Amino acid sequence: MNARSALYQARYGNPDVAVPAAASPVIDHLLAHASVRAYLPDPVSDDTLAAIVAAAQSAASSSNLHAWSVVAVRDAARKVRLADYAGDQAHIRQAPLLLVWLADLARLEQVARRVGETSAALDYLEMFEVAVIDAALAAQNAVAAAESLGLGTVYIGAMRNRPEDVAAELQLPPRVVAVFGLCVGMPDPAAPAAVKPRPPQSVVLHQETYSLPAQEAGLETYDQAMAAFYAAQGMKVRGTWSNHSAKRIRDAASLTGRDRLAEALRNLGFPLR
Prior knowledge:
- This protein has 2 domains: 32 residues, no CATH class; 160 residues, NADH Oxidase.
- 44% of the residues lie in helices and 11% in strands.
- It is built from 12 helices and 4 strands.
- The chain has a 4-stranded antiparallel sheet, with helices on both faces.
- Helix 3 crosses helix 7.
- The longest helix has 24 residues.
- The chain is globular.
- The N and C termini lie far apart (54 Å).
């Protein structure tokens, strides 16, 4: 088994997965991604951060609006508070660097004011969506860049659990909100991260038109792959991936505070018309 086959087998949790002939070092690098939740205390230098942010800024931006920002948090006390807001995740406290990615419409409002224009379009859901997408594209570039430098990362969606508290902690002005965090640091070799399988391409790739029935076989295969992954990692997950996912969307309580996100966004200056 060659190295590329191993990458595909790990990514899909399937020893029989087909390996495309198309290949590149970039694709190999992306296939090897794993979320890291254990870090060494080694700091991430300003020079490294500058390179990561340059990579982030190289992502596409809708209409070249650059409707995102990022706050780099290294202060231990601040990370403790942000970890608490995000459900007490230990890796937030442990990682030497936490990047908080922001949907940022405040800068555009300021730009419009500076040149004597109105900015009423910022009140609409479309502009908020633009900002969230811009932040996500930039952050994924940052992840690829960080991993290319030997660093590990893990996204923190729970930065949306208590949006107003996070905004107050980071001194965010109106029209700016944290959409997710990203832990960055040198992975602890004593607790190596595993590559988590993804669904077969038949689940996510549609040719010409969308089909739910066409996904069924792939979802059954994925349930089996994830059951094997849960067992190998000693994870206490009851049932299959389907069972686990269904519980995550069962009711408002399963959103761990994010059921009031629309209210929080309005409180933070996003009317979402």
